[in-house]
Amino acid sequence: MSHRQALSLGTDALDVIVELLAQVDAGSGFYDRLCAALCRLASVERAGLMLYDDARRLVVPVGSHGIDPGLLAEVYGTLEETPIAQVALAEDRVVEVTGDLEEWIPARYARFSGVDTLTCTPVSAGGRWLGVIFADRGGGRFELTDDERHAMWTLGKTAALAASVQIATSQQGRARLLQSRIDLARDIHERVVQRLFGVSLVLGSDKGLSDDARQRCINEIQAALGDLRAALERPLAPPTIDTGATLREELTRLGRHYKDLPLELHWEDGVEVPEELEPLAQSVLAEALRNADKHAHPTSVRVHVARTDGTFVLEVRNDGVLPGSRGTGMGLRLAAVEALQRGGVVEFGPEDGSAWRVRLVLPVGEDSER
Ligand SMILES: Nc1ncnc2c1ncn2[C@@H]1O[C@H](COP(=O)(O)OP(=O)(O)OP(=O)(O)O)[C@@H](O)[C@H]1O
Ligand SMILES: [Mg+2]
Questions:
Q1: Ligand 1 pocket list (CB less than 6 A)
Q2: pLDDT digits (tens), the chain, 370 positions
Q3: How far apart are CA 203 and CA 73, in angstroms?
Q4: Nearest to 48 by CA among 115, 120, 142
Q5: Which contacts qualify for 177-182: CB closer than 8 Å, 24 or more apart?
Q6: Where are the alpha helices (DSSP H) in 205-270?
Q7: I need a labelling partner for 360 at 20 to 30 A (CA). Which of 87, 105, 120, 227 fits?
Q8: Are both 3-170 and 247-368 of the same fold?
Q9: Which ligand 1 atom sits nearest the alpha carbon of residue 332?
Q10: 247-368: CATH number
Q11: Whose CA is nearest to atom 25 of ligand 1?
Q12: Where does residue 271 fall: left (phi above 0), alpha (psi -120 to 50 degrees), or beta otherwise?
């Protein structure tokens, strides 16, 4: 490449990055545009960006170019089974591998991809490993020039910048969440508990209740109920990340991720997930499967999706609960709070000895009635 070409690639990259950053707030499509820019600047044909989603504790595809998004959505994996990503992130450089891809990526992809050379760009900032971008020229061998490699590395940093902004926002969200829990506990204690304590004193007295005292008790209990309701209306759960995927797609992807879970799906005919309930349904599903993997050795994990009496129902039931796995986690309780805010419930608990059930029931709006 001539000096002039290199220079134009350099300024081009800068232009592209400035343009990308100008639209970073435009939300959806940002990572797709970034992948498209990477393909253009580094003369590759296909690129897919994967980020680690802290909430789901999974690697998720967030953007691509030149790849069928449906195909990418099926991709799953962990850093442990993807050495190319480990090297890219540990050494903070774009890694190119040619030939034996099985050494570098999970065997399930190495075999079917028909790719000779694959590149992996780190998405990391300040020592935090956020994800990677895979790219290739649609098969065939190639070598990147220094400028192409540099453009890719820089776009990796751009992706990292955008991802860290998102993470910072959700961490602030989490800090606020903790604060609002403390406020809630204090509120319930100061208002509701105090009122009820007053009522219990009156009711517990030896003397008979005067009409006046009875009325005061009723008023106090009603006020306490009002306070409780108001306290519970606050948003307490962190917002769920919307990956744009549907429950069905998420089920396939999670099924591949937890490959040792014997998943059975019973999806009742004609039942669709109302769009506004998708993120919650997906996060309950993810939590239920994570739990089945973590707290049980199941021989069956049944996922049941149904519609009954104006409600949407998602149920996950697994057997093989490990004895003594009583934990004090937050996963299900958070899901329950999130469901409450949507007027629904999450019930969970042991069933028939060694089974465990999680059931999400949500009211469905008129418009989404089918
Ligand atoms: N599928 C399951 N099989 C057996 N026990 C379960 C299952 N799901 C949940 N539990 C029990 O319920 C407890 C609470 O689950 P929850 O998801 O709220 O917390 P966690 O998984 O322990 O931690 P966290 O979700 O916060 O990482 C678990 O610790 C476990 O004892
Ligand atoms: Mg859990």
A1: 287, 291-292, 294-296, 318, 321, 325-327, 329-333, 356
A2: 555 555 555 566 667 766 766 665 545 688 999 999 999 999 999 999 999 877 667 788 889 999 987 778 778 888 888 999 999 999 999 999 998 888 999 988 886 667 889 999 999 987 889 999 999 998 888 999 999 999 999 899 888 888 887 777 666 666 666 676 677 767 677 777 777 878 888 888 787 888 888 898 888 888 888 877 777 666 555 555 556 678 998 898 888 888 889 999 999 999 999 988 998 899 899 899 989 998 999 999 999 999 998 899 999 999 999 887 666 677 888 788 778 777 889 999 999 888 999 999 999 975 544 4
A3: 61
A4: 120
A5: 177/236, 177/237, 177/238, 180/234, 180/235, 180/236, 181/236
A6: 211-232, 247-257
A7: 227
A8: no
A9: 18
A10: 3.30.565.10
A11: 331
A12: beta
Atom of ligand 1 nearest to the CA of 321: 4
Task: Report residues near ion ligand 2: CB below 5 Å.
Answer: 291, 329, 331
Ligand 1 center–CA 82 separation, angstroms: 28
Q: Whose CA is nearest to atom 2 of ligand 1?
A: 292
Dist. CA 338–CA 335, nearest whole Å: 5
Domains of the chain by residue range: 3-170, 173-232, 247-368
The amino acid sitting at 116 is: D
Q: Could you tell me which CATH number the domain at 3-170 has?
A: 3.30.450.40
Give the ligand whose atoms come closest to the C-alpha of residue 330. 1
